[in-house]
Amino acid sequence: MTAAVARDGALARPGTAGAPQGAHPGRSRSRRARPSGLLVLSILVAAVLLVPLAFLLVEAAGAGVGQVASLIDRQLTEQLLWNTIRLSVVVTALCAVIGTGAAWLTERTNLPGRRVWAVLLVVPLAIPDFVVSFGWASISTDVSGFRGAVLVMTLSVYPLVYLPVAASFRNADPTQEDVARGLGAGPIKTFFRITLGQAKVAILGGCLLVVMVLLAEYGAFNILGYQTFTTEIFTEFQQLFDIASACALSLVLVALSLIVLGADAAGRRRGRVSRASRTAQRAVPLHRLGLWTAPVLLLLAALVALALGVPVGSAVYWWAQGTNQPFQGTSLLSATGYTAAYSACAAALATAMALPVAILAVRCGGRVAHLIERSTYLVLAMPGLVIALSLSYFSNRYGNGIGYQSAPMLVVAYAIMFFPLALVGVRTSVAQAPAGLEDVARSLGQRRLAVFWRVTRPLVTPGLTAAFCLVFLSAVTELTATLILVPTGVQTLATQFWNYQQNLAYGQAAPFALLMIAIAAVPSYILGRFFDRQRATKP
Amino acid sequence: MPAGGTVSRIASTVTRRRLVKRGTAGLAVLLLAGGLAACGSASGASGSAGSITLYSGQHEQTTQELVTAFEQKTGVNVNVRYNDEDSFADEIIAEKSHPVADVFYTENSPVLEYLQNQGLLAPVNGSTLAKTPSAYNSPQGDWVGVSARVSVLIYNPSLISASQLPTSVLQLANPEYKGKLAFAAGETDFQPIVTSVARAYGDAKAATWLDGIKANAGSHIYPDNETIADEVNRGAVAFGVVNQYYWYRMKAELGASNVQSKIAYFAPHDPGYVVDVSGAGILKSSKNKADAQKFLAFVVSKQGQEIIAHSISYEYPLDDGVTTTAPETPFAELQPYPISIADLGDGSTAISLLRQAGLL
Question: Quick check: B287 contacting A, CB < 8 Å?
Fold first, then answer.
């Protein structure tokens, strides 16, 4: 960290460089030490995010070591492990290539219609997994099992890599590429050594999200008939009424995600981003695609057709095919209102929670800060079902049932589930905002909060927006936790879709699927516009 | 460069400020909307006089029709939650210390039997139980049967002819049906068939049978009956085991001209020919038992049963005097395997057999 800070800009921060790393927080009370308020906030956030883990441990302890061991020591476990691992490896690799490639094309080249592509490429994230799977399954029966799972998951989660990498390309320092070219490196070498190097943290962050989301995925695998730990956890819970066993299996998921986090941390250590001070930044020159324009456009069109066209097409097809039943305009409107409100609150909450953790981890560093940051990722690998159960468990056991099945609890559940998505967005921006500017502001006598509001906040705003949009998109389509925690009598778009689909009322389910996609397209559009405006203001 | 850089930076900061302001305003509006929605729902859920909470694992549209008619008739407000009935069973147990539900309405009897065995259900009024045949109510009187459905084969005549179909459930495991059969092992509707087979032929034979149908179905083991109906109809697989109403429901949804599939019954009294009962019970913890009893009485009343008979669920109402208008085989003419509700039990035998076969 220290070395990275020194490389970070002309104005290295003497306080951080000299402070004892990872020492007791109370001890480092020098003038420029880690702000204790930030640390307390971060610890609070981490504590909230570890509630589901606490629930798992309590419940699994209830099952007893013998029961847990016998559950894990089954022939099935080996198969589940193999299924989970091979899918994670293949899908993550595909997402890394597709997400990074698409981000480079939309941010760094003179691709025609960049603004439109930037929106279209993000929207697939907003299509519920169960809609995507149904869309594909209705086209071909070959879309099932491992190949089906790879296809469907790659097409629905690659935006998790695309978004942070695009933000990173957007903010990266172009002078380094120029220097590399000036020193005689070819365009390809420059791309791999410099461009990808600058985006490495974002790519790794995106891949981490992809792996974790795959570990927790349920809906798509259920439809495609692909068995993973998560589908087995649902079976234990739903068919066997065995919460303790479901929790024991969830602990295996937690162990898997710890391994992934460890590998990611190792990769990250070798991938610090450095950049010249932002004050010296100039506009990013766009690479000219030239003769490549047509093939590249074709490739992107194919990607969008597969990721967006198939599910939207099948939803429209159902709508056209389906019935005669009167169209429920009012329920559509109220479901849309609730879905948007819950998702927006959750997105705002998750983004606000991510800010202190990201600033602490990036600006102050140290073992404590990193432990806090890393621990928050664990939650992503937990199925929505487990998170909903943990909240209802603690509410019923210790909270006198307060807040159970209330809107605030649902919002908190979403914020917990999708917090890591927010963190990746915020962290990328904080890491790229030059700390030097904050130090200048501080040295000019600004208070810490004023510095945050006037200097840090504007610099990290693209990241905050990305974070908000990511959480919003994900919350709009959430189903399993929503079914348990939504206030009685309220339907969201996802639960209403599910209700109709359960009753084969595809014609009536389809508008809800289309609305989910439409609502999620709004933040995608804002995201695209936002980046585009910034670009437009540059000379 | 320095001058241009500064200008651009100022320009970009100004634009960004404007955007941020607009963004903040938008966020505030959304938060306000969220807050209002939260308040609205909170007040809606609070228990004013004459209000019950219904956990429904049954079809939303039919449940909603029943609820609306009940509210109009009695003035009692009903808050409905929808989820899978097996998820609800877990929730009800998890909520034991702070119960929420007053009435639990399910698609199948085993979940109700399970909760009854846990001592979580209260007795149903005798007058309500008397409305439906006692064979389809809880043997202990803790829940009432509301409607019924029957297991059938759905098949696609372009892939298999009616004469080639099995007539006995045991034949589903015959090698000749390899690659042709579809079923939904995880669906609560399938468990009664497994229980029935185990009761008729013993656990050992049932286990072998499950291995056989697992091998025959291969990749056609689907998550639910809706998928089976769809896949058979469009010719992805030759035939499958479902409840009868899925086919009628699909026909109503897609229009008769788009339905290529047909249904066939097992031989009379074959263990695969099973009547499943959808029922409703009152939670022992309910603080609104009087209104809850009213709701149960309503769903088995003439009015309630007529609603079910004419709904798009295509289930059989259990009141003898009410018949469906759909072109279904009349309930009285069905010749199911004579297995009692008590023998169908809480499904634990079926679950352990399915699990042993690696199907769960």
Answer: no
